[in-house]
C-alpha cells in the first residue's frame, strides 16, 4: 500500500520486503495503517472484540479477519495482515467503512481514475440498500474489492489478483440483480451483463485492469453463448470527428481482445459514439478518464 516504505522486516525468521513504486501519492495514508509488529494484537482484538450489530457488519468483519490471516499465514505479509486486522476491528466497533480508495495506494492517476469508477458503482449499490438486502454478498464484494486493490498495488501475485477480481465481479453481478416478484408460470426476462473497460488519454491500449475485465466478459459469454454488444466512447477533449474515430478504434481493440479469448466474431455487434454518450457530463474540451471507455454488454 502507498504509505509503506521499502524496508526489510525480519519477523519470526521470515524476511519481508514491502512493495515499491515510483508513483508518489504521499499524504493520503489511511489513519489505521498496518504495522508488522502489532499484527498479533490486532487480529486477536478483532476476533475477541464485540460483534457488529448488523448482518453486513458481521460478515464484513469475518471477511477482513480471514484475509488478514491469509496475508500472514500464507504470504508472510504482516504489514497488510495488520492493516486488514485493524479494519476488522473498526467494523467490530460498528464503524462504517467504505471500500478502499485507490488514491490511498500507489497507483498512477489514470489507474486511480479507472479503479475509482469501479469503486463508485460498488458504493452506489451498497448505499442503495444492498448491505441490508444481501449482507453476505455485499461484504464479499467490499472485501474482494479491497483485496483486488491491495494485490494490484503489489503486482506480483497475478493468480490472486485475478481471483479477487473474479470473486468481486461475481458478487457484483448478484448485487446488480433486480429483485422482482415474478409469477411462477412466467418466464423471467433474460438479463444482460455489462462490463466496462477504460483507456488512457488519446489511447487504444488495453490496460492490465481491462485485461481482467475482458477475461470476465469472455467467461460470461462462454456460459450464455449469447450476443455481445461492444460500444466505443471518448471524452469531450479534441474534435468531435477525431473522437468518433478514436472510439471506433477502441471498440476494435476490445473486439480483437474478445475474439482472441475465443468469442466468435459473428456473436459480436460493434458501435462507436465518440463523445456522444458521456458517462460523466462535461463541457466540451474536458479530459475525463471515466468517459474514455468501451462498454461490453453480454446477453
From TrEMBL:
InterPro entries: Bact_OuterMem_StrucFunc, OMP_bac, OmpA-like, OmpA-like_sf. It is found in: Cell outer membrane. Gene3D superfamilies: OmpA-like domain. The keyword Membrane applies. Residues 1-19 form the signal peptide. Its main location: membrane. Coiled coil: none annotated. Keywords: Cell outer membrane, Membrane, Signal. Pfam families: OmpA (PF00691). This is Cell envelope biogenesis protein OmpA. It comes from Thalassospira lohafexi.
Amino acid at each position: 500500500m502507498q504509505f509503506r516504505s521499502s524496508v526489510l522486516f525480519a519477523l519470526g525468521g521470515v524476511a519481508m520486503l514491502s512493495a515499491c513504486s515510483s508513483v508518489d501519492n504521499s499524504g493520503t495514508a489511511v489513519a489505521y495503517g498496518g504495522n508488522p509488529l502489532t499484527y498479533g494484537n490486532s487480529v486477536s482484538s478483532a476476533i475477541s472484540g464485540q460483534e457488529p450489530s448488523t448482518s453486513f457488519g458481521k460478515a464484513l468483519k469475518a471477511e477482513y479477519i480471514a484475509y488478514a490471516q491469509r496475508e500472514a499465514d500464507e504470504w508472510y505479509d504482516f504489514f497488510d495482515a495488520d492493516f486488514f486486522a485493524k479494519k476488522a476491528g473498526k467494523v467490530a466497533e460498528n464503524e462504517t467503512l467504505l471500500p478502499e480508495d485507490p488514491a490511498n495506494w500507489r497507483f498512477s492517476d489514470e489507474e486511480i481514475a479507472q479503479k475509482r469508477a469501479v469503486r463508485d458503482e460498488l458504493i452506489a449499490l451498497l448505499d442503495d440498500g444492498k448491505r441490508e438486502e444481501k449482507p453476505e454478498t455485499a461484504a464479499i464484494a467490499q472485501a474482494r474489492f479491497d483485496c483486488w486493490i491491495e494485490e494490484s498495488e503489489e503486482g506480483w501475485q497475478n493468480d490472486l489478483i485475478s481471483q479477487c477480481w473474479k470473486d468481486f465481479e461475481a458478487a457484483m453481478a448478484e448485487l446488480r440483480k433486480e429483485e422482482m416478484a415474478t409469477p411462477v408460470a412466467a418466464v423471467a426476462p433474460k438479463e444482460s451483463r455489462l462490463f466496462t473497460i477504460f483507456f488512457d488519454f488519446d489511447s487504444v491500449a488495453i490496460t492490465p485492469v481491462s485485461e481482467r475485465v475482458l477475461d470476465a466478459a469472455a467467461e460470461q459469454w462462454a456460459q450464455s453463448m449469447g450476443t455481445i454488444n461492444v460500444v466505443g466512447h471518448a471524452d469531450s477533449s479534441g474534435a468531435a470527428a477525431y473522437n468518433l474515430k478514436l472510439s471506433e478504434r477502441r471498440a476494435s481493440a476490445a473486439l480483437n481482445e474478445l475474439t482472441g479469448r475465443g468469442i466468435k466474431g459473428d456473436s459480436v455487434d460493434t458501435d462507436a459514439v465518440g463523445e456522444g454518450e458521456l458517462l460523466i457530463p462535461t463541457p466540451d474540451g474536458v479530459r475525463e478518464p471515466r468517459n474514455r471507455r468501451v462498454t461490453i454488454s453480454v446477453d
